[in-house]
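Repro:
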Amino acid sequence: MNILGIETSCDETAAAVVKDGRYILSNVVSSQVDIHARYGGIVPEVASRQHMVSIIPVIKEAFKNASLSWQDIEAIAVTFGPGLAGSLLVGVNTAKAISAGRGLPLIGINHLHAHIYANWLGEKEPEFPLVCLVVSGGHTDLILMEGHGSFTLLGQTRDDAAGEAFDKAARILGLGYPGGPSIDKAAEGAGNSIELPRAWLKGSSDFSFSGLKTALLRLSQSGMISDINQAAAGFRAAVVDVLVTKTISAARKHHARQILLSGGVAANKLLRQEIVRLSHVPVLIPSPGLCTDNAAMIAACGHYQFRQGSISGLDLDVKPSLSIV
């Protein structure tokens, strides 16, 4: 089964064709990072207008790269939330128009579920039950999955998401946007790191990064940061320490057979290294290109939803604040 995936939740316009939920035939991403970098963050109106320019060329390129035609597609999967309302509308309306015009089933996809399903696009198929850490610019969620479509929220951030915290830390330290890669690059150049606090929230699987960000800000304002690289390394270490410890603890508690990482922050080098090094069970992590927003994960998620009979109507609407469960 070949499914066309469409993703426009934020600032990437993406389309992909995936076979049987596991095999990528094409995966095209048109990024707007350079456009928004001058503003130090994403401008929603600019993002939605750029999606309108890019969506059709990106879909055509996905078909070209897959060497397929519309006759080879059996369904369309599209992100309907969470995300920026204007950006989501471009993708959803495009998918609805294609669905209506070509008589193809439409599958509305929760963007956060799709990040998890990026793990099905690797060499090894995940095994249930599993614990998944979804960690991105807007979300930090710890999920128990006991089967396809089964999502139990174990913990989430009480304030800043990890990716958001990296963006704010990069801004404090005068590093570039997006913050995650900038912090990662700076940290790699540090011989040592400064010690920063961790919010453990004992007895809970929740996360908190606001206090860590404030601690870094106060050090910066007091002139106590003499080495930017060491500060970046200390911030990264504090975030990763909490993410890894809580994820492994949850996997032990719920007798998970595997741990999955997903979301943009899953591309972080230290996070990938430490969770593999410390975990007592196998860890699956998508390739860095599948951690960030892409349409292959949308199509993969769509395959398993379609198999369970989860089809959307042409009244599908965007849900910008959609949660993971």
